[in-house]
Specification:
six-stranded parallel sheet, alpha/beta, extended, Spore Coat Polysaccharide Biosynthesis Protein SpsA, Chain A, Rossmann fold, single chain
């Protein structure tokens, strides 16, 4: 809702994407807690992209609808969602003593703090390590008001205090000092990388293979294309080729984002397809256009850490690996974080991990010339099939032990779900095309071991007839136990104490047998129920029924 602003209006800025993990809900709740007199003094500008909200109670709304619902006509505000970073900074500088709110509950090295810390404006900031450290790096000490992360009351109090001191003159360091700070930061980063990991030889250091990053983009479905490309642009590794393919996006907003990316990242290759062909086909097209010694396949929700390509390349060069993979920092829509690891394994085990989407791995060109991406439009993770095929054929796969990228997802627990049967079938079909002579002997051994274990499980599964026998045996033992108990209770003659003791021992023994047999019956009944409700068992029964109708014997 827009209101007319007078000369005494205080400009309050929410800076950042309008989403929950950037503290939008905390900010809105804080504004609602401000004193009514204070509310009349302020005009809020939301300076960031409007996005869909993901929490259960807000999932039907986007951020603009949410703000409108919460503020109704009580708060003066406007939303500017189409500015690039430079435009946003210039807009803030044009305002008279604005108060800027940075409300993310958790940050590592926030660019927002780096940018806003250099502007002479009051900052109301979430008291997290990332914000504090970043502002300290740019030597920003004045005009800072801290609040407890995710605490709307604490944020409201900080805003009230900042408004009470308005207008406030804020000092920042000079441009020359900032340039020196940036230079020092770069030196520190390079020094840290050098000390944290094993030094490579001079020969390896001089060898800087070209890394091609192939990026699929479709209808702005996942992640943020501009953010993803910005992370690529900030890589410490220089010999990078970037190919971005729009896989036939239909909506105008997605096309506009793609066009903005073309203008911003003019050194990269961009291609727009006329129709949607799917992830695997898009990656194959990008690979055909590439010239790199290694390739990395991404979607916009994969955000590389600044040294990711450097570490991928070092690991590949040092080990001579066909694939370099790593763990990742998985971040949910509510800013919940989880480290997800993949370090390879046997082919049978990899079938359980097919739901591990978004795997970001480095592949040699020669491997990709042997194993292409599956081009079925229904397969959401065609890169996984290449990893399984490389495992089956004994290729060298190296695991880097630290996260090299962030993976944005709506549901952080999604990857604990059961594997997709269609994906499993696709992997089996993919593996069937590999010549038997190309299979690794170790993987063949592991497959045979898995088959043997399944056969043993089937052999140990009792038949329905065996369950009936167990149940009959339990009833028999229970009857014997009851007879002994009755006989024991009828012994009233003290001279027969020894006989009573013998009967007690026998009764206790029978009672133990009954309990053990009952456990066996329950376990057997459970296994039989699971077996009879399986698709295999239903097909088996149907097949025997057909055989009886046409007069064939019922044996296997």
């Amino acid at each position: 809702m827009l209101f007319e602003k007078d000369l005494k209006t205080v400009n309050l800025i929410f800076f950042g994407r309008l989403e929950e993990r950037k503290g939008l809900r905390t900010f809105v709740e804080a504004i609602k807690q401000l004193d009514p007199i204070t509310l009349k003094k302020i005009h809020i500008t939301f300076l960031g992209k409007v996005v869909s909200l993901f929490s259960a109670e807000l999932k039907e709304l986007n951020s603009e609808q949410y703000i409108q619902r919460e503020f109704e006509k009580r708060v003066s505000y406007n939303i500017i969602s189409n500015f690039f970073s430079k435009q946003a900074n210039e807009y803030i500088k044009s305002l008279d003593h604005p108060i800027i709110c940075l409300t993310s509950p958790q940050e590592n090295f926030p660019n927002t703090a780096l940018e806003m810390g250099q502007i002479p404006a009051v900052l109301v900031v979430s008291d997290t390590g990332g914000f504090r450290e970043t502002l300290q790096l740019v030597r920003r000490t004045s005009g800072l008001y801290w609040f407890r992360p995710k605490d709307s009351l604490s944020l409201a109090e900080a805003i009230e205090e900042a408004i009470g001191n308005h207008p406030e003159e804020v000092s920042v360091v000079s441009r020359d000092t900032l340039e020196q700070i940036n230079s020092d930061l770069l030196d520190q980063k390079l020094d840290h990388i050098e000390k944290a990991f094993t030094k490579i030889s001079n020969k390896q250091r001089n060898f800087r293979p070209k890394i091609t990053i192939c990026l699929n983009y479709y209808n702005n479905q996942v992640g943020n294309l501009i953010d993803c490309l910005s992370r690529i642009e900030s890589q410490s590794y220089e010999n990078i080729e970037v190919i971005v393919i729009d896989d036939g996006s239909k909506d105008e907003y997605s096309k506009e984002i793609f066009d903005q990316a073309v203008e911003l990242f003019y050194d990269y290759k961009f291609l727009r397809l006329d129709k949607h062909i799917g992830l695997g086909s898009t990656f194959n097209n990008a690979f055909a256009l590439s010239s790199g010694d290694y390739c990395l396949f991404l979607q916009p929700n994969v955000l590389l850490l600044p040294f990711a390509i450097e570490k991928f390349a070092e690991a590949a060069i040092n080990s001579g690996a066909d694939i370099v993979t790593c763990s990742r920092k998985q971040i949910g829509s509510d800013s919940t974080e989880k480290i997800v690891s993949f370090s390879g394994g046997a082919v049978p085990l990899l079938f359980k991990s097919i739901s591990y989407e978004g795997v970001c791995s480095l592949f040699t060109r020669s491997l990709l010339e042997t194993f292409r991406h599956c081009e079925s439009i229904d397969i959401s993770n065609p890169t996984w099939e290449i990893i399984v095929a490389a495992t089956a054929t004994g290729r060298n796969i190296v695991y880097f032990p630290y996260p090299l990228y962030e993976y944005r997802t709506e549901d952080i627990e999604f990857f604990d779900a059961r594997p997709n049967l269609k994906e499993q079938y696709s992997v089996r079909q993919y593996l069937s095309k590999i010549a038997p002579a190309d299979w690794s002997s170790r993987q063949i051994y592991l497959l045979l071991t898995a088959v043997q274990q399944l056969q043993n499980q089937l052999h140990n599964t009792p038949s329905p007839g065996e369950v009936d026998w167990l149940k009959t045996r339990v009833h028999s033992l229970e009857s014997e136990l009851q007879k002994l108990t009755d006989e024991l209770s009828n012994l009233q003659n003290p001279t027969k104490v020894s006989e009573a003791e013998e009967l007690k021992k026998l009764a206790n023994s029978l009672e133990d047998q009954v309990r053990a047999m009952e456990v066996q019956v329950d376990q057997a009944r459970g296994r039989v129920t699971a077996m009879e409700t399986s698709k295999f068992w239903k097909l088996r029964k149907a097949w025997f029924k057909v055989k009886r109708r046409i007069g064939l014997p019922d044996n296997e």
